[in-house]
Amino acid sequence: MLFLDLTVQGLVQGAIYALIALGLTLVYGLLRILHVAHAALFTLGAYLGVIVTNQTGSFALALAVAMVVVGVIGVGVYRFAYKPLLDQPPLVALIASIGLFIASEEIFRLVFGPYGLSFTDPPLQTQVEILPGIFLSHARLMVVGIAVVFLGLLGWLSASTRTGIAWRATVADPDMARSFGIDVERVRYLNFFIGSALAAAAGVMVALLNNLVEPTMGAVPAYKALAIIVLGGLGSVRGTLVASLALGVIEAFGTIYIGHLLDRDAIAFAFLIIVLMVRPQGILARG
Amino acid sequence: MAYEIVLLTTMSIAILFALSLNVITGFCGQVSLGHAAFFGIGAYTAALLTKAGVPLALALLPAAAMAGAVGLLVGMASLRVRHDFLAITTMGVTFLFVGFVRKQDALGGEVGISGIPQAAFGRPGLLLLAIVCTVLFVLVALHIRRSWMGFAFDSIADDEDTARILGIDVKRFKLWAFVIGTAGAGVAGGLYAHHIRFIGPDSFGFVESVTVLAMVIIGGIGSIWGVALAAGLLSVMPLWFQFVDDYKLLLYGLLIFAAMRFAPDGIAGLARRIAARIALWRLPR
Predict the structure, then answer these.
(1) Is residue B244 part of a domain?
(2) Staple partner for A222: which of A39, A135, B140, B143, CB 3.0–4.6 Å?
(3) Domain count, chain B
């Protein structure tokens, strides 16, 4: 029973990781930038989610507002932070991104206060029995639902629309794509919008699961998501999905069985290092 | 006077720490996001030894050896993964180190180690020791730059595959870079433990790894003087920013961002460009 329970918990956690890491993978695939500040957008999404829910009482509205606003801010981050650095070595963008992340944690603390916010009346807390003996709250089910719906949409978008084709062409070879008349800039803006909106959705859901948002809540996902996209083979969407779910489950089991030796984050990174030593190109690398 | 001594010790340790990373990342081109782990290994080793009665100057040697030995292991990982993969692997090393220390009662677990003895001759003695170590390391770094090893590092940083074709033993030199760099960090860590006289797992996390990398990048990757200057300035900056207490991390983050945005090649690059501008201006027209 414990086995099944841990697997389910791990998969829910994995679904959250997937939502966060996907935006990061999209950015990496397109620009080869390790976008640490992505986690700041995740935190911002969480704050917006709680504030709008508390003001209006509608969780769905809060989710939508958080995704759109954060999506637009994500585009701004690309325009003003990364675009001027595109012809520099990738390390420069990485450090710039870390600087942004440190600064934004402080902005959250100054604007929203150091103690965090919670829902005055947390929605979706009813427990449901999904398998005999295994209970999940509506909120957890919704996390999985949101991950499946958005990732499905994303898959459909990239596989069978003109926008998706332009996107894949730009990932494969930006110069060639440009010479075929694709507006590469527009693809990048769209990319940041979608990636950031997904991070916001993840933020809102994490806020709901913990019923708490704090300025530093982005720290752990920032590093975990980097580990996940590397595990998945950097820039591979399918690999990211597999790695997210695998990491969620491994952490769930690891904290129970080897928790006395290593803490949760260390288990995640031990797994990362072991996998990379065996398969230096990640779990599912392209080519 | 006491305040100046603390300030100078902080700067000296930071300079040694940043220069040690500069050997790995600057000279040899291997990005490391986990350098604080080696700083931590040195700190714990030295602290345990001096608490057992070994004098600090002697305890720094095993601290360097221990950090260098683990550095050799991580260096072996760098033979397997490259670029961004290496960056994330080394980041994992930090989390492994912190996660491991947290759970070991012998290392003080969550609480850390306190009551670390003072260095001989107190704070001035520690400052002197720190300066000696830093100067020694600067000399080592200068020597590497002028030697065949520096040339090999350069070629690896530039293009590993070409270096291999030219007959440079890439593996051996990468491992050397990691061992020298991490041993330097171990010494810096040992000094730090006796400077603060309390260490815990939180002193050696990812933020510290990033901070030291930021010092190297802002100084101008590979430049000894640029990195030393940046490390000296950035290490005491939080103290200078005390007057804006609440905003100091915000300023710090924005400063790192602005440095990358407007001077991506760091202080050294900025100095080079200004020098070139002056030279141009002096040309007869």
Answers:
(1) no
(2) A39
(3) 1
